[in-house]
Amino acid sequence: MARKKAATPKETRVTLNTIAQHLGLTPGTVSAALNNSAASRSIPEHTKARILRAARDLNYRPNYFARSLRLQRTYTIGIITEEIGDPYGAMVISGVEEYLRKHNYFFLTVAHRHDQKVLQTYSQMLLARGVEGFITIDTSIKDQPARPTVAVAGHQRVKGVTNITLDEKLAARLGLSYLHELGHEDIAFFKGSPLSSDSSARWTAICEVAADLGVRIRPELTVQIDSIDPSPNLGYPFGRELLTRNKRFTALYAYNDISAMGAMLAFREACLRVPGDVSVVGLDDIPMAAFADPGLTTIRQPLQRMGQIAAKTVIDRIEGNAHYLQEIVVEPELVIRASTGPVGSPIKD
């Protein structure tokens, strides 16, 4: 006769009660500490540390589905972004994910590609799936949302929306002052696509700072980007267009890093040295900027930190832990790499 297979021992599920009995505490105390709820403020730090250590040692896995049913909450945030895979948005989402994961929240992400109909449809779909708040990235919001909302690079003043924005005027001052100090007077500019939420505020800041510094903004050296390509191809055709105008310039102040890197490729194909003939400055400091050829001088946005701030802000508003703020402004930083230098051999008329 064939032998019967020995039954596999069933794994004992570790619950809040398991941890509570193990430590000699009440399940409520354990729950408050693990969920970092308001009640946890009265729990001594050494007790919290014991609870967290025991949860790790016992391999505790929280039942989020049961918690959602019990509390009638989903602990889910809807992230609405312009493009999946865009280096700018990816860094912001990385910061959002890191903060939400640490605070036991989930997120759903949708991309609208600046299509207003798609944006409206996706917003309704996320609401139907029970999201408790929204984080938008490079998305213009026009109407008051139905849930607490934080906009990274939104710029529209809408009731109920907290905008997290870069200090664009300081960014422009850092970049243009640096080029000015290097002796650059004939500076070309890339204006961002009108579809990008940052474009208008960034260009206004550039114009104001240029006037303060005495830097001329010449129409023949200003190129309007009309694409939202998330690759360096965003700047490549516009770099070529700038060269066909045959106007003297010794530096390019690009809309962002992606457009700057595309322009550098166009310049190299025209046998121009970067920075010997043309210095190039970008904005964002996406990861690939440091590995461009040459390394790109840029104005750094703390994109990952902006994502963390967005996540914290929306959770605080959902849980009633903070007052509503209309705007949170973050400061940029100049990062100098090999794409800039003193005026060398300018392009001839």
Short recap of the structure:
The chain has 349 residues and is α/β, with parallel strands linked by helices.
Structure description:
By secondary structure, this protein is of the alpha/beta class. The chain folds into three domains: 16-62, Orthogonal Bundle (434 Repressor (Amino-terminal Domain)); 71-166 and 303-330, 3-Layer(aba) Sandwich (Rossmann fold); 168-301, Response regulator (Rossmann fold, 3-Layer(aba) Sandwich), CATH 3.40.50. It has eleven helices and twelve strands. It has helices spanning 16-23, 27-35, 45-57, 64-71, 87-102, 116-128, 168-181, 199-213, 236-244, 257-269, 303-318; strands at residues 76-81, 106-111, 133-137, 149-152, 161-166, 187-191, 222-224, 251-253, 279-284, 297-300, 327-330, 333-335. The strands form two sheets. Strands 2-1-3-4-5-11 form a six-stranded parallel beta sheet, with helices on both faces. It has a six-stranded mixed beta sheet with strand order 7-6-8-9-10-12, with helices on both faces. Strand 1, helix 5 and strand 2 (106-111) form a beta-alpha-beta unit. Helix 5 (87-102) crosses helix 11 (303-318) and helix 9 crosses helix 10. It starts with 15 loop residues before the first helix and ends in a 14-residue tail after the last strand. Residues 5-9 and 345-349 have low confidence and may be disordered.
The proportion of residues forming helix, as a percent range, comes to 25-40%
The coarse silhouette is elongated
What characterizes the major β-sheet? 6 strands, parallel
Q: How many β-strand stretches?
A: 12
What is the N-to-C succession of helices and strands? HHHHEHEHEEEHEHEHEHEEHEE
Question: What is the strand content?
Answer: 15-25%
Span between termini: 97 Å
The third-level CATH topology of the largest domain is: Rossmann fold
Number of helices: 11
Structural class: alpha/beta
Give me the Rg, rounded.
26 Å
CATH architecture of the largest domain: 3-Layer(aba) Sandwich
Poorly predicted runs of 5 or more residues? 5-9, 345-349
CATH class of the largest domain: Alpha Beta
